[in-house]
Design a protein that fits this description.
The chain is α/β, with parallel strands linked by helices. About 40% of the residues lie in helices and about 15% in strands.
């Protein structure tokens, strides 16, 4: 192994992140041999199982390979595979509660609205960009939530917006402060862009202000905050937390602030935005959760320089988001029946999530999920719990897909979980979490 690089970390995720960082910085070059599991465990003062888990994650992500007596080495062409590839398989007949997405049965019907659309032909260089009707409605909706929206554009979904904003201000090697646990796709994106993460603890009220301050002082050039329905914890930034975060950000005006309001109209919690707390900022609001992931459309508001850079870069690539999709979003926003239906769907999602939380609490199992489509359950052995739940017919996500330094847990997506199933699932979670009392072998 290169004498210039020292692997560090005390958790499997931190060790894996350290090795990936070395690959990105070229301190760990292709074919570099990594220490044996027991040797690295002794060096770091952790258990061999922790190092083995880190190596397993890196193999899944295509960063390393193990070849018998030749040991473990950095792959010749290391890749960063999505964490979602680490999801468990879905056996026939099992209930899949691992997706993190909305219930397809509760998405609004698009066909009637599509039939009423009369799109005009759009040619290169003329009429492309942001639909004036969509821009007007988006500004009204954002302004009602206290988000300044003089400057805005449209992107192909939330993750695309975040990528474009990060690319507009950061360079490979820069650090990004993120919630821990946090959105796995975001962690993958940051790694793929050649950036690195600095974890920030998060609780029911959002990111910890002291943790944000520490991360920025350690060199984070950007901060990503989930406004509501945080994935996987279900956090929602409260008014008090927003004030505390604004106070911290006032001392770091140069940091890039990105807010992710992916839940949008589905959220019954009020929005407490941080928009404008720093010089460069962006708020992205997607239509995927309320109206359907296939719409691939999100509104991005921010300071003029950031929006200008995003639009300039977008003009060199995908050019614009389809005006047909934009027209469909406008039709959805203007339809009173759709608006009423989305509000009802939001309440149903809340009922399903709260039913599971209540059922878990009655069994002495702690769960978190103030908002959104998921419940987070801290467990001692997430791999074992997921395996035992799988045997019982329930597929959930291991916390390793979302964690950096935070303690282990499992994420249960409740969007398709009927309220009368909550008790059965809670029994299974209790049994899986306490194998000594379970009929399943450890």
């Amino acid at each position: 192994m290169s004498s210039r690089y020292s692997i560090n970390g005390t958790t499997s995720n931190a060790i894996a992140a350290s090795i990936e960082s070395g690959v990105r910085s070229s301190d760990l070059t292709p074919a570099t041999k990594l220490p044996a599991v027991r040797a690295l465990a002794e060096e770091l003062g952790v258990s061999p199982g922790t190092v083995a888990a880190a190596y397993r994650t890196l193999r899944q992500r295509g960063v390393i390979e193990t070849d018998g007596r030749r040991g473990t080495r950095i792959r010749t062409a290391p890749a960063v595979a999505p964490r979602s590839q680490g999801r468990l398989p879905i056996p026939i007949g099992a209930r899949d509660l691992s997706s993190g997405g909305p219930d397809p049965a509760l998405l609004p019907a698009l066909e009637p609205l599509v039939r009423r659309l009369t799109p005009e032909p759009v040619v290169y260089g003329a009429g492309s960009g942001v639909s004036p009707e969509l821009a007007e409605l988006a500004r009204q909706r954002l302004a009602a939530d206290g988000v300044p929206a003089d400057d805005l554009t449209v992107t192909s979904g939330c993750l695309h917006a975040i990528e474009r904003v990060l690319d507009a201000h950061l360079s490979p090697g820069d650090q990004v402060a993120v919630e821990d646990p946090g959105w796995g796709n975001l962690l993958d994106l940051i790694a793929a862009m050649g950036l690195s993460v600095l974890p920030v603890p998060v609780d029911d009220d959002g990111p910890d202000p002291a943790g944000v301050d520490v991360a920025i002082r350690r060199g984070a050039r950007a901060l990503v905050v989930t406004s509501r329905a945080q994935n996987p914890l279900g956090a929602s930034v409260s008014a008090e937390r927003a004030r505390a975060l604004r106070k911290v950000l006032a001392t770091h005006p140069g940091v890039l602030l990105i807010e992710d309001d992916h839940a949008a109209e589905l959220a019954n919690e009020p929005l407490h935005p941080l928009s404008g707390a720093t010089v460069h900022w962006a708020m992205v609001r997607s239509v995927s959760k309320p109206y359907g992931p296939d719409l691939r459309c999100a509104v991005l508001a921010g300071d003029g320089e950031t929006i200008g850079r995003v639009e300039g870069r977008q003009a060199l690539g995908m050019r614009w988001v389809s005006t047909i999709l934009q027209s469909l979003v406008v039709a959805l926003w203007r339809d009173p029946a759709v608006e009423k239906g989305i509000a009802e769907v939001g309440r149903r999602y809340d009922e399903r999530r709260e039913a599971l939380l209540a059922a878990l609490a009655r069994r002495g199992v702690h769960g978190q999920g103030r908002s959104g489509l998921n419940v987070w359950v801290p467990v001692a052995d997430e791999t074992g719990v997921c395996a035992r739940l799988l045997e019982a017919g329930w597929v959930v996500s291991p916390g390793a897909l979302f964690r950096i330094d935070s303690p282990p847990g499992i994420r249960i997506t409740t969007s398709t979980l009927e309220t009368d199933e909550a008790g059965v699932l809670a029994d299974a979670v209790l049994a899986a979490s306490t194998p000594a009392r379970s009929r399943y072998p450890v």
